[in-house]
């Protein structure tokens, strides 16, 4: 059971409890929050209330959130683009549209489902049954190189290198507009969006340090092809940073325009290279993958735009 106790700020006074609590928690649907209230798992000042209760400044809201039941993750026969595999790691070129690990609404068809089948369960268990072997993630609509740990020792070593910024991660992206500088560094902290808790944002007060280096590969009429290197690895880092400097990624309806002119679904972002010291040998290794066909076709359309 998880407990959340929140005191109402004056600016939130007058809002419906269910609407406010959904936004405050930021990870549950309104219908789920309504169910919590109706079942008596939410109290205000120690008393149960209705979903439409109008909150007041100074109210103390106590929400009891039951621990989620861990779903069974099933091994599935899903083709994998394997760049490298040995007894410690497996390096995958993840396609656009594939979720990395199971979560609400995506318990099948994920990379983890495929890995469980391919590796016959030989994956690290540090991150539990939902994320076996997963050292780092990329978004569903981001393609490219990922390393997965096949045992706990490899996982621990790679996780530490990731924490110490000792893993080289290079991305290719198409951004809206003309980026004027040939190269640069975006150093802006990232945290939860202050209003939309499902999004990240540059948060100067509560964010964690985030650094992205970029260089221009090619400029088009109304877009720019970039190479980006991550110094840190915050959630949605590249997408947030590019939006912050006024050049959201093509196709990114979350951090960019809702109406996209190029008809590209999902952000135009590809994890092109991953380099690190092998957890067993200590030898530096690099793995790379070309952007998928739809990304290459987008670049050609941008080149031909007049």
**The CATH H-level homologous superfamily of the largest domain:** Pseudouridine synthase
Range of helix content: 10-25%
Largest sheet composition: 9 strands, mixed
- Distance from N terminus to C terminus (CA atoms, Å) equals 58 Å
Kindly name the structural category. Answer: alpha+beta
What radius of gyration results from the CA coordinates? 22 Å
Overall number of strands: 15
CATH-scheme architecture of the largest domain: 2-Layer Sandwich
CATH class of the largest domain: Alpha Beta
Taken from the alpha-carbon principal axes, the silhouette is globular
Mean pLDDT value? 93
CATH fold-level assignment of the largest domain: Pseudouridine synthase
Give the total of domains.
Answer: 3
Low-confidence stretches: none
Q: How much of the polypeptide forms β-strand, as a percent range?
A: 25-35%
Which series of helices and strands comes N to C?
A: EHHEEEEEHEHEEEEEEHEEH
Give the count of helical stretches. Answer: 6
